[in-house]
């Protein structure tokens, strides 16, 4: 056997993942990824609906909703087939959309974020449904817009689903939430996120004649220093502290001897359940205003929409999920709210939502990869979870 080769046991999850990874579904392109999911679910007896949503300022996005069974409880599994760009393809050890296996790991863009989770759930649903339909309703909602603007994806699909009469009891999102080993963490919430542009305006002029100009940079710097020193909170029982980050500063000025007419900075805030959006905006605007003298031109423009904070404590969802993980891994998973935003923020208004999936250490990186053994283990966990959630059916 040559170096880099390994014997791999084939499985339904591995087969699904190979097919999904070879689809170049960089947001908002689909390239057949949703078609594979639709074909699989249709064969299992799901009623499948494909929806494309449009917006004047953003690309069209393909989405999928599938359902089987009827009545309560109603569980929806959610995820996304779109992926981030691969970056410099020559930096990959294997082509990013070839789904090659090296040393027991499948390499490819989306392997863990999150085509791997979808592949495992498809395999788990097939196993679960061999005993018959669920004692309730099982749905699947997949978008092609999670890694992009998130405008024509999950949020609009949920509105459509509610308008057509669906009522969800719980949602499981297959994001790569495990940290160092499969099953060590469940996401039971996420902090919110909001961004803003802070602009200071002045008067352009020659750097040698500052009295004839009005340099906006000193007051922008003063405002940014005040924001950088701001402690929003010390964290809450469920969340880490809120944090504000200055992500860019720009004048658009290419000349070294010209005082610019304006200067702008971008900020991003990750906030916990200590804050609601209006209160947070008011706090930031007050800090910026206090940093400038009366009459100085300084504005804060918020980039909408904000991503809302959410937190889940429903044991009807978390209990069966944690039990299924412990049964397969032998360890109790941590319940965490760390990390960035996800589509869970859209589900929180309709039902309890949790996230659980593969180890996310290589997501968005060159040579994103997943151990084949983890695909088998996650399939087992998802199948066990479905059995427990729908009443302990073996």
Can you describe what's shown?
There is one protein chain. The chain has 394 residues and is α+β, with helices and mostly antiparallel strands. The chain has two domains: 12-190 and 309-389, Zn peptidases (Aminopeptidase); 193-307, 2-Layer Sandwich (Alpha-Beta Plaits). The chain contains nine helices and 19 strands. The chain has helices spanning 12-21, 33-43, 115-129, 154-163, 217-228, 277-290, 315-329, 344-347, 372-389; strands at 47-55, 58-69, 74-80, 100-102, 105-107, 137-143, 170-173, 185-187, 189-190, 192-201, 205-206, 243-250, 258-259, 262-271, 298-307, 310-311, 334-336, 353-355, 369-371. A six-stranded mixed beta sheet has the order 1-2-6-3-7-18, with helices on both faces. Strand 1 and strand 2 (58-69) form a beta hairpin. The two termini are 40 Å apart.
Outline the secondary-structure elements.
Blueprint lengths: L11 H10 L11 H11 L3 E9 L2 E12 L4 E7 L19 E3 L2 E3 L7 H15 L7 E7 L10 H10 L6 E4 L11 E3 L1 E2 L1 E10 L3 E2 L10 H12 L14 E8 L7 E2 L2 E10 L5 H14 L7 E10 L2 E2 L3 H15 L4 E3 L7 H4 L5 E3 L13 E3 H18 L5
Parallel strand pairs: 3-6, 3-7, 7-18, 8-17
Antiparallel strand pairs: 1-2, 2-6, 4-5, 5-19, 9-16, 10-14, 10-15, 11-13, 12-14
Helix pairs in contact: 1-3, 3-9, 5-6, 7-9
Shape: elongated
Record field, number of beta strands: 19
Major sheet characteristics: 6 strands, mixed
Give the CA-CA distance, first to last residue: 40 Å
Helical content (DSSP H or I, runs of 4+): 25-40%
Number of domains: 2
CATH topology of the largest domain, which one?
A: Aminopeptidase
Helix/strand class: alpha+beta
Strand arrangement, largest sheet?
1-2-6-3-7-18
Overall mean pLDDT score?
A: 94
What is the gyration radius calculated from CA atoms?
Answer: 24 Å
CATH class placement of the largest domain? Alpha Beta
Annotated CATH homologous superfamily of the largest domain: Zn peptidases
Unreliable sequence segments: none
Continuous helix count: 9
Order of helices and strands: HHEEEEEHEHEEEEEHEEEHEEHEHEEH
The name of the CATH architecture of the largest domain is 3-Layer(aba) Sandwich
| Range of strand content | 25-35%
